[in-house]
Amino acid sequence: MAKEVLSREDWDVYYNKWDAKSDIYIKSYGIFYTNGHWNDYLRSIRPSSLVKQHLNRRCASVPWERAMGIHIRRGDNKKSIEGSPLSAFRQKMRNDMNSFFVVCTDDAATKEALMVEFGDRCVFPATVLSRKTEEGMVQGVADFFALTKCTHIWGSVHSSFTEIAGRYGNIPFDLMT
Known about the structure:
- By secondary structure, the protein is α/β, with parallel strands linked by helices.
- It has one domain (50-176): 3-Layer(aba) Sandwich (Rossmann fold), CATH 3.40.50.11350.
- Helices cover 44% and strands 13% of the residues.
- The chain is built from eight helices and five strands.
- Strands 3-2-1-4-5 form a five-stranded parallel beta sheet, sandwiched between helices.
- Helix 3 (49-58) packs across helix 7 (134-148) and helix 7 (134-148) packs across helix 8 (160-169).
- The relative contact order is 0.17.
């Protein structure tokens, strides 16, 4: 059974202890556990009603049986930007004429470039790309759950998001270089 990690009241108390202008950073490292129990714990996480509502609004028309997840990490992750250039994703997408693309990115220029080139073959679950607001965080989680429903994920190097989504959905993933 899924549990609330932090109630709304607890969140307000916790959040108000910190300067609202400060950023909170989470750093990950290394390879995630591969044993079955870890994957079971991971898969026990369920989307909140807010996340479900957002996914239903943004992804209602996705043909999931032919959906390819695309995770393009940008922002402050220089290693991802350098190691997984947009050109690698675009070339792979051009070569896959049968897929519908569920694109998750934190970069407006990347989103715009893919919208122009691939148009109605793409959906972008997140409309708020910054993760510094509550709505941005909800949409970031919606991105994660959208990727878990795809048949395959193409993702960015030096970002654990692709791997964790692949493990959660028990779907294959490749890192673009």
